[in-house]
Design a protein that fits this description.
Elements: H1 2-15, H2 20-40, H3 54-60, E1 63-67, E2 73-75, E3 78-79, H4 83-95, E4 101-105, H5 111-123, E5 131-133
Parallel strand pairs: 1-4, 4-5
Antiparallel strand pairs: 1-2, 2-3
Length: 137
């Protein structure tokens, strides 16, 4: 009978499920998801810009192109369209090579139009970078 009792105790030990590896995996997954969700929810850095007096002088000696909310491209009060941007920038930078191009873009302007205007201005080979002016709060 002693043999029989030992056999039953061995079977009882074998029927137990070892859940410690499963608990380890649950904790590892929990740590992984906690760490990754912190990176996803980072909003970024907010920057408070200072007012610069030199910015007013820059706008006087620059090419100002406006893009309205319905996608019209305007220079000097007249609509030039996307195809007219390259010609205007080439003509005005031929007289003054240091003249920058500044885009005044409406908030509701289509992003595709803005990108195409930037491309056309860059294809005209302006010496300075094309800038986009923003509205103050």
């Amino acid at each position: 009978m002693s043999k029989r009792g030992s056999i039953l105790s061995d079977e009882a030990e074998m029927s137990d499920i070892n859940i410690s590896p499963m608990i380890d995996m649950v904790f590892i997954l929990l740590i992984f998801f906690i760490v990754t969700t912190v990176f996803v929810q980072e909003p970024g850095v907010e920057v408070q810009r200072e007012f610069a007096m030199s910015a007013l002088d820059l706008e006087k000696n620059s090419i100002l192109i406006a893009i309205t909310d319905d996608g019209e491209v305007v220079y000097g009060g007249s609509t030039i369209g996307i195809v007219g941007v390259r010609g205007v920038v080439k003509r005005l930078t031929a007289d003054n090579e240091s003249m920058p191009v500044i885009l005044q873009v409406d908030r509701a302007a289509p992003a595709g139009t803005v990108i195409r205007v930037i491309d056309e201005a860059k294809l005209a080979n302006p010496p300075s970078v094309v800038s986009i002016s923003t509205e103050g709060q």
